Amino acid sequence: MEKDMLSGGSGFPERLKRRTMLKLGAGLITTFTLGGTEVWRLAHSPQTAHAAAAATPSIISCATWGARPPDVPVKVLNISAKEILIHHTVFPNTTNYTLAQAYKLARQIQNFHMDSNDWIDTGQQFTVSRGGYILEGRHKSLAALQSGKQVVEGTHCPAMNQESIGIENEGTYTAATPPETQLAALVDLCAYICVQYGLQANSIFGHMDFHSTECPGRRFYALLPALRRRVAQRLGSGASMAERNWPELRLKTSGIGVQVVQRLLNNKGYAVGVSGTFESATDAAIRRFQSSNQLPVNGHVTNQTWEKLVTSLHTGSAGAPVSALQSLLNRNGYGVGITGTFSAATASAVRQLQLLHQLPASGSVDINTWCAATGGSVRSSLL
């Protein structure tokens, strides 16, 4: 398992004693067989998108898969989730798609997190096996999700543990892609999370959007635009969706996205080091930038702040913004050198990114392309 996988913060775990797999809510049930095991799944049709989205997928409770009790009670927060974060386990890509393997997976993750990482319980709230089984990860996460008004504090991504729902996906997806059975179950789970917390599909992000890690793997990360579209179709309406939704970076976040913010700040005349760590100097520079641009001063790089920081780019552009863009393209798997010069190779990579996100493939970088490059999503590409 990736060493910094689900690199976490603090949390406080607890025991859940129910002994049954929960199959809640209304919806048509279909069955098929994988590896000799009967799999139950909620079936959805375009004509009943809203009803389907509201139906609860089968989620296997901690007690059912045999979880150890957490070291201390988990912390249950009386708030709504703001994001869904996608992870991969960095375990082998097994072809054992059985229920028994899903139980084994959940126990392996918990043992690793508690015994090797010294965490109080499983780090993430939910897990999806390669066989398409959805399991509760951290204790009480299922009950909190069902309430739609609570979040169990996790240990899966610094700065995000108190507001996001972390979903581990069995497998390693740096060079391979998840099986469709796993992706279909992930769509079911994400749609239900969105319904419960009043989120839209543009609230789905990858672990690497907020932390210095390769998780969920470049191949899986490239599937996130399609995942969001599938969830948006399931939800059936995006009228209230923001035109663009960017990853919200702030203190304790890290990675290429933070480097991009730092390069863009330098371009605007706010000198900060390009460390990839959102520390106090970056926070102070963002606050000064926000104040100068009549934005809410909170140190968070939100939609409004991103859209003041970025600038249009095209072939022939040069400087810190081009380096920032190239670092994002490289992170996203396009293999672009960070030269600071907008070359033909950079334009080609931009067109590939635009096609992936169903944006006009111009090769030039407008505000929508910037949003997609950072890990955000554009409403028009989801509807």
TrEMBL record:
<dbReference type="Pfam" id="PF01510">
    <property type="entry name" value="Amidase_2"/>
</dbReference>
<dbReference type="GO" id="GO:0008745">
    <property type="term" value="F:N-acetylmuramoyl-L-alanine amidase activity"/>
</dbReference>
<dbReference type="GO" id="GO:0009253">
    <property type="term" value="P:peptidoglycan catabolic process"/>
</dbReference>
<dbReference type="InterPro" id="IPR006311">
    <property type="entry name" value="TAT_signal"/>
</dbReference>
<dbReference type="InterPro" id="IPR036366">
    <property type="entry name" value="PGBDSf"/>
</dbReference>
<feature type="domain" description="Peptidoglycan recognition protein family">
    <location>
        <begin position="57"/>
        <end position="211"/>
    </location>
</feature>
<dbReference type="InterPro" id="IPR036365">
    <property type="entry name" value="PGBD-like_sf"/>
</dbReference>
<comment type="similarity">
    <text>Belongs to the N-acetylmuramoyl-L-alanine amidase 2 family.</text>
</comment>
<dbReference type="InterPro" id="IPR002502">
    <property type="entry name" value="Amidase_domain"/>
</dbReference>
<feature type="domain" description="N-acetylmuramoyl-L-alanine amidase">
    <location>
        <begin position="69"/>
        <end position="217"/>
    </location>
</feature>
<dbReference type="InterPro" id="IPR015510">
    <property type="entry name" value="PGRP"/>
</dbReference>
<dbReference type="InterPro" id="IPR036505">
    <property type="entry name" value="Amidase/PGRP_sf"/>
</dbReference>
<dbReference type="InterPro" id="IPR006619">
    <property type="entry name" value="PGRP_domain_met/bac"/>
</dbReference>
<dbReference type="Pfam" id="PF01471">
    <property type="entry name" value="PG_binding_1"/>
</dbReference>
<protein>
    <recommendedName>
        <fullName>N-acetylmuramoyl-L-alanine amidase</fullName>
    </recommendedName>
</protein>
<dbReference type="GO" id="GO:0008270">
    <property type="term" value="F:zinc ion binding"/>
</dbReference>
<dbReference type="InterPro" id="IPR002477">
    <property type="entry name" value="Peptidoglycan-bd-like"/>
</dbReference>
